[in-house]
Automatic annotation (TrEMBL):
Keyword ATP-binding appears in the UniProt entry: yes
Keywords assigned: ATP-binding, Nucleotide-binding
Domain ATPase AAA-type core residue range list: 24-313
Entries under Pfam families matching the protein: AAA_21
Gene3D superfamilies with a match to the protein in the record: P-loop containing nucleotide triphosphate hydrolases
InterPro entries in the record: ATPase_AAA_core, Bact_Antivir_Def_Nuclease, P-loop_NTPase
Domain of life (superkingdom): Bacteria
PANTHER family named among the record's database cross-references: ATP/GTP PHOSPHATASE, ATP_GTP PHOSPHATASE
Single GO molecular function: ATP hydrolysis activity
Name under which the protein is recorded: ATP-binding protein
Length: 421
């Protein structure tokens, strides 16, 4: 598992340091403060490849950019500090065969995925035959269209893609399809809205592929490429999880070695495109589906970015401070600061919205928040004039519903102050 990550003179702050929890790590903070950047660097630390452009360091006469990390590898704990070499415009890497961090997955916000499989991406090593070389793909980098249509760089077929694999698996009705059914069921928003495959179909005379479908709640079968953005993200996630594990098992069998005993999963904005009902279950579902697919004692570590107060409320029953952590990136003055939040149950999404994690003054519209602030300022004074009272009351009437609990406070104060009988 990824245990530590420390950045100096790279990223949004002069220094950032994480001591990651072994199971669940939730990253929160405002837009633009570096949450996705942290996931990118974590991926690089584990796999020695960048999902996109490399991290660019800060510049100046006194800067000495470093990325230090620690993780538990197959052969024991791994520690390394990479420095940035300005002449070559690259981060230094430890020479020789890299450490094996187990399986690493990265689901990005734009629908792209990255996969590092210790059975398929690790260096070949056979000392008796003089083989010790990095001649395997450094990682599988899926653009959004590759997830659906296949990954075939330089004519090599690494992955058939969701459309062809799903159709093949469904036709064979074997283990892979049963695992896909399990993943779809587990990742469904609720038992009353299950993700269930329909019959294969054709969508065009110009496309000869058998197209998978999903049974819609309104009785029709919808081709997967016509599904909503939220459904597409979840079924592509289900497919990649099944494909990655199936191929890992096959490759491990060919290599006559055991399957991995740990998986690290990075997810950017886990709640993206999802209805609140789905946001409330998705995190638990991902932890459950990983355990269900592997079918054995495989450790799973999750690093995920979220902007959802409902997701944080939903995770309260399963959050364990011994193995889970909540991280927050915040602006203090003109500098980004990282803190590990002390965990406490807040009860509902509104309470999370007004916590230090999201920093909202009120879980209401901006107009309602401003009206309440004006009202509270008025209630704290002694010399309030009637025209001031009427002006603020008009603001409240224009932004709060009749059943808002603030009206009780306002009405009591108005009576005590003699503005209402």
């Amino acid at each position: 598992m990824l245990e530590k990550l420390a950045l100096k003179d790279v990223g949004p702050a002069p220094q950032l340091a994480f001591d990651f929890a072994p199971r669940l790590n939730l990253l929160t903070g405002d837009n633009g403060l570096g949450k996705t950047f942290i996931l990118d660097v974590a991926w690089w630390a584990l796999t020695r490849s960048w999902p996109d452009a490399p991290a660019m360091p800060q510049r100046g006469a006194s800067v000495a950019p470093t990325i230090a990390f620690e993780f538990s590898g197959k052969s024991g704990p791994i520690e390394y500090t990479s420095t940035y070499d300005f002449p070559s415009q690259s981060w230094t890497r430890k020479g020789g065969r890299p450490a094996n961090p187990g399986m690493v997955l990265y689901a990005r916000i734009d629908g792209s995925f990255s996969v590092w499989d210790p059975a398929r991406n690790y260096w070949k090593q056979a000392p008796s035959l003089g083989v010790d070389a990095p001649d395997r793909p450094i990682a599988y980098q899926f653009a959004p269209q590759d997830v659906w249509n296949g990954l075939e760089p330089q004519g090599k077929i690494y992955c058939n893609g969701l459309i062809r694999d799903w159709a093949t698996w469904q036709g064979r009705n074997g283990e892979a399809f049963h695992q896909l059914l399990l993943a779809l069921k587990t990742l469904s928003p609720s038992s009353s809205e299950p993700l269930v495959p329909g019959e294969l179909t054709r969508i065009s005379i110009e496309d000869v592929r058998d197209m998978p479908t999903l049974k819609a709640p309104y009785g029709q079968e919808v081709a997967v490429i016509h599904a909503s953005a939220g459904v597409k993200r979840i079924i592509s996630l289900a497919y990649l999880l099944v494909w990655t594990w199936q191929e890992h098992v096959q490759a491990s069998r060919l290599l006559n070695q055991d399957t991995t005993n740990q998986i690290i999963f990075l997810i950017d904005e886990i709640e993206a495109h999802l209805h609140p009902r789905w946001q409330r279950t998705i995190l638990r579902s991902i932890l459950e589906v990983m355990a269900a697919l592997t079918g054995q004692d495989v450790g799973v570590q999750l690093l995920t970015v979220t902007h959802s107060p409902l997701l944080l409320a939903s995770v309260e029953p399963l959050f364990d401070e011994k193995i889970d952590a909540l991280w927050n990136l915040d602006i203090v003055g003109q500098q980004v600061e990282l803190r590990r939040e002390a965990w406490r149950r807040r009860g509902d999404a509104n309470a999370w919205l007004t916590s230090d994690v999201f920093d909202l003054a009120e879980p209401r519209s901006l107009e309602a928040e401003q009206a309440i602030q004006h009202a509270e300022a008025l209630m704290s004074r002694k010399d309030v004039q009637r025209d001031e009272f009427l002006r603020v009351q008009l603001q409240l009437r224009g932004s709060l519903p009749d059943v808002d609990p603030f009206w009780l406070r306002w009405g009591f104060w108005a009576q005590e102050s003699g503005f209402e009988k």
